[in-house]
Every structure is written in C-alpha cells, then in structure tokens.
User: What shape does this take?
Amino acid sequence: MINALRGMKDLTFEESERFVHIVTTAIGISKKYGYSYIETPILEETKLFRRSVGESSDIVGKEMYQFEDKGGNDVCMRPEGTAGVVRAFVQAKLDRRQNEKFKFYYYGPMFRYERPQKGRLREFHQFGCESFGEGSVYEDFTIIQMIGDIFRALGIGYDLQINSLGCPECMPPYRENLINFLNDCKDELCEDCNRRIGTNPIRVLDCKNKTCQSLLADSPKLITSLCDGCESGFEKLVQLLKSENISYEVDTNLVRGLDYYSKTAFEFVSNEIGSQSAIAGGGRYDKLVEFLDGKPTPAVGFALGIERIMELVVMPNIEREGYYIGAMEEGAIDSLFPLASKKRVTDKVTLEYSPKKLKAHLKGADRVNARYCAVVGEDEFKDGTIWVKDLVEKQEFTINKSEF
RNA sequence: GUAGGCGUAGUUCAGUUGGUAGAGCACCUGUUUGUGGCACAGGUUGUCGCGGGUUCGAGCCCCGUCGCCUACCCCA
Assistant: This one.
C-alpha cells in the first residue's frame, strides 16, 4: 500500500465538506469587499522567496521544498502566497497604473518542509487577500474587519492581536537600539537569540524561552519608538477598531515571521487548537512591490490557514436532500435512467443499478441521506408507475412515471 | 534536527506472571414473500506495522527499523 507523504493529508467526507465550506464562505465575503480571484503558480523561482520572504526567515532558511528542475532552474514550491501574487502584479505591469487599486483573493496549497504536528502540515492550504495601491490605514482596518466577518460567518471565536512594525524611517533606529540592548545581555540570552541578533534581531522579541522573555521585559519597545506617521496611523487603527467594537490587544512582541511586513501587523489566534494558535495573519507590506522590481505601491494583505480552522468551524446542519431511485427486478433498471435524468435537472439523484428488496433500497436511501426513496417494484413495473416515499414526512404514494 | 507517546478487525480500543486474539460501533442476514432510522437473534472481518533475537512457545520480553501523534523551533 502506498501512503501519502509525511505531512500531506487526504480530505474526504466531513473534512472535505468543511474545507469547501470555509473556502466558499471566505470567497463570498471577500467578493463583497471588492476582491477578485487571482490564480498563480505553485512553483516559482527560488529567488522570488529569497527576496520577498527574506533570507533570515526560517521559511527560506530551512523549510523550502526547493529543487532543480529538468531545465536546470532553481525552483521552489511556494511556502506562502503573497510573494507569488506580488510577482504576478508586477509582471502584469499593474504597478504602472498608479492611481488604480487592485484587490485579489486566492486560495490553494502551500508547502513547508517542517516536522508535522497538530495544526501544522507540510502541505497546507491558505485563503488570502492582497490589496494593492491603498496606503491608508482605513484599508488595514477594512481587512481586519473582513477577516472578522469571515470568522463570524464560520462560527469561529478568536482573539485579535495587533502591533506596528514601523517603517523605513523609524524601524532602523529602533533596530540599532534593540541590538545594543540585546548585546548588553547577550550572555544570558539563549543560543537562538544570539544568532538572531546578527540575522534578525526583531525576532528575538517573540522567543519562547522564559529567561529571554524575562530579560526582554525591559527591552525598548518599537511601539513607543514609532515615527509620527506610523504612530498616528496605529492610533487611527486602534480608534477604528474601538468604534466598531472589534476587540483586540496590542502585542508589542508580535513580529511576523516574514521580512516584508511594515507598519500594521496582526494575528488572529484561537486557544482551542493546540500549540499552533495562529489562524490568520497579515499586515502591511508597502515596500515589497519595489523589492520585486515594481514601482513603489503600498499594499496590505492577510492569509488564513484552512486546516487550522477546520476543527473550529460550525457546520450548517445537513438535511436530507434529493432522490434515491432503484428497482426491485432486473428488467426495470433501464427504465430508471430517464427518471434520473429528469430529476437531476433540479435535484441530487442517486441511482442504484442492482435490483434489491424494498428494505434494502430504503436503507440505501438512508445511506446517501436522500429525502425521497423512489422504487419501481413488480407491480409498478407492470403498470408504468413508481412508488415514492418521503423519508422525512413518512408519506408514500404511487404515481405514473410521467408525473415523476 | 531533538524529545516523549503510540502502532492489534473497516473504525475505536481491550488483551493479566509469555500458552497461539477479543469487545463496542460499522457491515451482512434474519425476525418482516414490498416499508428505513429502533429492538432482538445470528454471522463476516486480522501479515497483532516490519525485520531479527530470547524461548518448547512471543501481541506481550530484547534489539533494530518504518510509520503516526504530540511538543520544541517556526508559523497559517
């Protein structure tokens, strides 16, 4: 028997229904916010992710499904969605249309070569949105609102954490400040953090190590070092969230794992799904389009992890639906096909090809959760009728086939 | 990469100091020559993950290996 690869899952029955329900719900809501679908390749040139996600990130450093294709190209299965969408945006020269706004949603598989555990797979699926050309913090707020709408529609509770990561004006001085602070206590910081001082000092902030966390209590906070523009933008975001009664908490240690974020960063978390608690995350990335050779274009986006919210979704009740059609003797089977075709115009139909006793047909109808069980038995076959039972109302009747 | 837990029927699991494998659910049949879900009765289902070792004898003990789960790291 050949099994799926480690960290890759098949979805069937209830699970695949949950999956589809999440995606269709998210699509419906993002369309109402003006987003349209973008499909981009799963395979991209490796350097796209090196440049966008960032060399210092773990994703690029050790988690990429990277290989050389038969043409000798260094390629990579996408570990996240934003980079490909931005590449597509630039390639289509949408960055030249500076006064226009573009909003795209996408969904599909992402790949990271990690050790699987609860809520973390090697192939997982994200639904995401990217909004280009709108630099206003109103858009940051609108996206957070939209995610809230999606979770509400799915019946999912969450906590919202927000932070500001600053901009090219205020981030570098803060970064220097932080490096100085970290160097002063580097002997007490863990091994990983010592490495991060050189590679990505900001990420020391969300180290899980307890000694590190206690040392960091006195560290300089970016939120109090923001430039005027970033600070007023963050205040505006907070004010909008308050006025719409969206509860949030400011987490000064919230650092997105990807290098391209600036200003607003947010994460939706759930405490019901184990240690991998982030169910959606995103933020603003005003510099990424130029990083990828486009004209400067502000942008903000998010992604939600479909597998992580699958076990949180409250599914609508499933009700009996459609028809189960069968016959009790071999000779009547052929006559069922026109009936099935007619009903399939409007209803779900399950057609049984083997003759069976009535009891077996009724059980078959239960099994496929049909509302009606329609059977041609010996008598019905003789006089051109069909017996139909409503399995919910428990009413039955025999009608001419032409009336079916 | 590291650590812990677990691999027995389709599924969830039990299996005593080692003595040749069991239960619930599911499935099939019947009670009902044409009335489902409920009830009752009966029945089918196994490479005990794989390989080796110890033993008269291994699901159980030992060694190895593969797989799954959880956690660290990181993130959706």
DSSP finds 14 helices and 16 strands in chain A. Chain A has two domains: 13-170+226-310, 323-403. Residues 13-170+226-310 of chain A form a domain with the BirA Bifunctional Protein; domain 2 fold (CATH 3.30.930.10). Residues 13-32 of chain A form the longest helix (20 residues).
